[in-house]
Amino acid sequence: MREVLAEVVGKAGCITLNRPRALNALSLGMIRELASALLAWRDDPAIELVLLRGTGKEGPFGALCAGGDIRFFHQAVLAGDARLEDFFTEEYTLNHLIHFYPKPYVAFMDGVVMGGGMGISQGARCRIVTERTKMAMPETAIGLFPDVGGGWFLGRCPGRIGEYLALTGEAIGAAEALQARLADALVPAKDLPALWDRLAREGASALPAHTLAPADNKLAPRLHDIERFFGEPDVPAMVHALEADGGEWAAHAAGMLRKRSPLMLHVTLEQLRRARGLDLAGDLRMERDIVRHCFQLRPGTASETMEGIRALAIDKDHAPRWNPARIEDVTPGDVAKFFDSPWPMHAHPLRDLSDGDVAAFEAA
């Protein structure tokens, strides 16, 4: 079965992720097919815009994408499979291409949109959410960090919403996504097929208008709390302030942080705050450094990422044995290692990325 269906319909290049049993989690082959389609259509005058959707049994378009194929990551590490390196280099290159695609790129973010699914949708000209949208960057739960440009797009959420979503991995719905500026338009799920057909038929003139965040979204009443707690200078200060608060929301947030990888919480906070001073290309190069270290600083099954994947997806005991075990035990030196690039700039796998310039994809 083809995992990516790419076809031209009317004025649109239409892409359907077609791996429903895995909630359309991205494989290396899917990443390559997505990039190939986008490059082929970029200069085709007959194609006015690009549409992206998922498929599945629930809702009109199922889930958009649940992330990267973490089972492949685990298997690749154990087998010494060099394609693991290719996966991240090519995925981040694709993320950059989408952000700077010269034609309107429209992401139908229905159902689950997490991790790698955010990477192929946050760069869209129009990010459409529905009442079925379940959005998150949950990587700290598997000993990873919010990559695929997460430092860049979460770092540009209002206030400290980015820190809150990146560290806790909390899932949000459409209203909260609009509040966080991670979505542009809210469309009822039942109307998606008609909108898809209309965009293909009429082109960019049929793009939906931007939607203001509803007043009753769950983030709005917590913005002061998010600013207060997640604006703290470091992760221990955040969790200690949350635990000292005594409120139900603060206790829940603290509980989520206590379950995540202590080491990767610290790395994630540093990633996000550094990313605010970088352009997207610089952020993706930094994330490529970090993800290499996620698998190489502690080789094999010793890494936090391998342990997190084991607990969530392999053994499914949901009892990861983090090292260090406590947020308070992580040292600045532990964190600094993740930001020391393993490559000189001239040899960096993403050295050719430049914001506003997609020439790098022609050479990839």
UniProtKB/TrEMBL annotation:
Alphabetical list of InterPro entries matching this protein? ClpP/crotonase-like_dom_sf, ECH_dom, HIBYL-CoA-H
Instruction: Specify the superkingdom.
Output: Bacteria
Alphabetically, the GO molecular function entries are: 3-hydroxyisobutyryl-CoA hydrolase activity
What GO biological process term is on the record, naming one?
L-valine catabolic process
Keywords in alphabetical order: Hydrolase
Instruction: Pinpoint the Enoyl-CoA hydratase/isomerase domain residues.
Output: 13-339
Q: Which PANTHER family match?
A: 3-HYDROXYISOBUTYRYL-COA HYDROLASE, 3-HYDROXYISOBUTYRYL-COA HYDROLASE-RELATED
Protein name as it appears in the record: Enoyl-CoA hydratase/isomerase family protein
Organism field: Ramlibacter algicola
